[in-house]
Amino acid sequence: MGSDPGREWVRTVENKRTGEWLQVPLEVLNVKPRALVARRFPGEGLALLQQSLTVEVWEEDRPIPREELLKRIENVEGLLSHGTEQVDEELMDRAPRLKVVSNYAVGFDNIDVAAATKRGIMVTNTPGVLTNATADLAFALLLAAARRIGEGEGSCGMGNGRCGNLGCFLDKNCLGPYLESLGWGGSVRR
């Protein structure tokens, strides 16, 4: 724990006997730190978070509205954002307990890293998480373009039960013996 009590993993509680407000470490209260997950995400990660944190999840299939985010961020120590939430000075000002922002995205474009650093808030991301998916999509698009998949689907899906002349979609070797890719970074190596 640091020397700034407003930034530590503490809760402010009232002493019922004296009426005095005290800063008490969470472990003394046996309370888990709180985290806001700005949108559901796939996999087992949420269950892992719930083992050590009290987790509040935005359950809708759309980004959390800004005003809702600003309202819910006030009493949390952690935020799991998805790259669509702007984590800026205004948000950090409303989150005096915030200690970590984990971005479920490759970059930090949505986070004011300098402001977070100034406040002692750790910022993390998930580098490389989209590399395989990007490579898969690129290859699928190459095949779809070479085989004219969109046109073929349109020809077959006209609702009349006939597929027309499919020979025009099947007569060429789509990629030849080699596929060369330059300048795609990690996606090409997959």
What's the quick description here?
By secondary structure, the chain is α/β, with parallel strands linked by helices. The protein has helices at 26-29, 45-52, 66-72, 89-93, 113-119, 131-146, 149-156, 167-170; strands at 10-14, 21-25, 34-37, 54-57, 78-81, 100-103, 122-124. The strands form 2 sheets. Strands 4-3-5-6-7 form a 5-stranded parallel beta sheet, sandwiched between helices. Strands 1-2 form a two-stranded antiparallel ribbon.
Describe the protein's architecture and organization.
The structure is a single chain. The chain has 190 residues and is of the alpha/beta class. It folds into two domains: 32-124, Rossmann fold (3-Layer(aba) Sandwich), CATH 3.40.50; 131-187, no CATH class. Helix content is 31%, strand content 15%. The protein has helices at 26-29, 45-52, 66-72, 89-93, 113-119, 131-146, 149-156, 167-170; strands spanning 10-14, 21-25, 34-37, 54-57, 78-81, 100-103, 122-124. The strands form two sheets. Strands 4-3-5-6-7 form a five-stranded parallel β-sheet, sandwiched between helices. The protein has a two-stranded antiparallel sheet with strand order 1-2. Helix 4 (89-93) links the parallel strand 5 and strand 6.
Report mean pLDDT, rounded to a whole number.
80
* Domains (count): 2
The level of helicity is 25-40%
Give the biggest beta sheet. 5 strands, parallel
User: What is the assembly state of the chains in this entry?
Assistant: single chain
Please report the number of helical segments: 8
| H/E series | EEHEHEHEHEHEHHH
The CATH fourth-level homologous superfamily of the largest domain: NAD(P)-binding Rossmann-like Domain
CA radius of gyration is: 25 Å
Strand content: 15-25%
Neighbour order of strands in the largest sheet: 4-3-5-6-7
How many beta-strand elements? 7
Class of secondary structure makeup: alpha/beta
Question: Any idea what the CATH architecture of the largest domain is?
Answer: 3-Layer(aba) Sandwich
Q: How far is the first residue's CA from the last residue's CA? A: 42 Å
Taken from the alpha-carbon principal axes, the silhouette is elongated
CATH topology of the largest domain: Rossmann fold
Low-confidence stretches: 1-7
CATH class of the largest domain: Alpha Beta
